[in-house]
Amino acid sequence: KNEVEQSPQNLTAQEGEFITINCSYSVGISALHWLQQHPGGGIVSLFMLSSGKKKHGRLIATINIQEKHSSLHITASHPRDSAVYICAVRSGTDKLIFGTGTRLQVFP
Amino acid sequence: GAVVSQHPSWVICKSGTSVKIECRSLDFQATTMFWYRQFPKQSLMLMATSNEGSKATYEQGVEKDKFLINHASLTLSTLTVTSAHPEDSSFYICSAAHRLAGKDEQFFGPGTRLTVL
Predict the structure, then answer these.
(1) Which of A51-76 are b and which e, b meaning 16 or more Cβ less than 10 Å from the residue's Cβ?
(2) Which residues of B touch A51 (CB under 8 A)?
(3) 3-state class (DSSP) for residue A10
(4) CA distance A98 to chain B (A)
(5) Nearest partner of B95 among B52, B61, B46, B56, judged by Cα
(6) Are A98 and B43 inside 8 Å of each other by CB?
(7) B49 to chain A: nearest residue by CA?
(8) Residue range A22-68, pLDDT digits in tens
(9) How far, rounded to the nearest angstrom, does the alpha carbon of residue B13 sit from its chain's CA centroid?
């Protein structure tokens, strides 16, 4: 079993839909990252969380430390949101443990 | 914001040659940089952790003599794939740790796609 599990693995949506991507982890963490990887490969760091909730534009990330679970929400989704979303946790050291990613496609 | 660059963005080389990839933090100093490899449709896998002025720490299964890492300054780390073979073809990504508001955050480079013929 992976230490970081994401669901769903693949997700398709119509433009405008509300999207939720989930991340569960089994280790103690000091921080959790949500990353976005576009088809060209470049990675953008969306959020770093250690508690509570953060919002940036149409993106919202929440984390529940007790339940070892985090969610990434996208409101009013748009085709340009199509990418792979990766959850990564930092446990103990500076190293990140990555989930396998959620491939999102938003159709117009 | 913190920006990390990589050069080159893609490279094609012949089997047996060596390839150097640079990772630079453009607007901050990074005492720690990380090198990752990503195969198609897979997640990132950490290869090594690079600290300025000291030897890199390699993950299990990563050959340190094949993947040479040099972190000569606080803004530059290099990864050299020596005697590259087709199985080394992959997407190589670096990240740099930057302390913001008392917390260390990693900023990722755009990646380098290596194809070995």
Answers:
(1) eeeeeeeebbbbbeeeebebbbbbee
(2) none
(3) strand
(4) 7
(5) B46
(6) yes
(7) A95
(8) 999 998 898 999 999 988 888 888 999 999 999 999 999 999 999 99
(9) 18
